[in-house]
Specification:
The chain is an all-alpha fold. It contains seven helices and no strands.
Length: 152
């Protein structure tokens, strides 16, 4: 059972990345373009407004890059920082815990993106397509480790 789950791990990680990236990009699109219900009852955030408009741009661009698996670690790092900033400046002053201050979304996105910084994009990502030929890819490293473990 463990062996099957280990083989599926890079694909499950890709699905996780795709879902998180898509949902994050939808937040940005809603804030910038008023789609999917918009912000505050269907409106948009005025261009250049600090910090909301900049956060929405990070959500749209960062979420799209994470969704595609392109520059995943960098995009996830920036998105994670954006959500940490949102949590500590918007939600945390209201109450200590996310359940009390309505900050569950910010906290979960922050930690989900931080996880992607360390794990990488998974098996299904554009990062893998555009990786230089000589550069080792995460799936290649994983196969080498498994081969070494089997041979030991």
């Amino acid at each position: 059972m463990s062996g099957r789950l280990n083989k599926a791990q890079p694909y499950a990680l890709s699905l996780f990345r795709i879902v998180v990236g898509l949902l994050f990009a939808c937040h940005g699109a809603a804030s910038l373009f008023g789609v999917l219900g918009g912000t505050g009852g269907g409106g948009t955030i005025p261009a250049g407004t600090w910090p909301g408009w900049y956060a929405a741009v990070i959500e749209l661009v960062g979420g799209t890059l994470v969704f595609l698996g392109l520059g995943t670690r960098t995009a996830a790092f920036i998105a994670s920082g954006s959500m940490a900033y949102a949590y500590f400046t918007v939600h945390q002053p209201e109450a200590l815990f996310p359940l009390q201050n309505d900050g569950e979304g910010s906290a979960l996105y922050c930690w989900a993106f931080l996880l992607l910084v360390f794990t990488g994009p998974g098996a299904l990502a554009l990062d893998r397509v555009f990786a230089p030929r000589g550069e080792s890819r995460p799936a290649d490293e994983e196969r080498e480790e498994q081969a070494t473990a089997v041979g030991a």
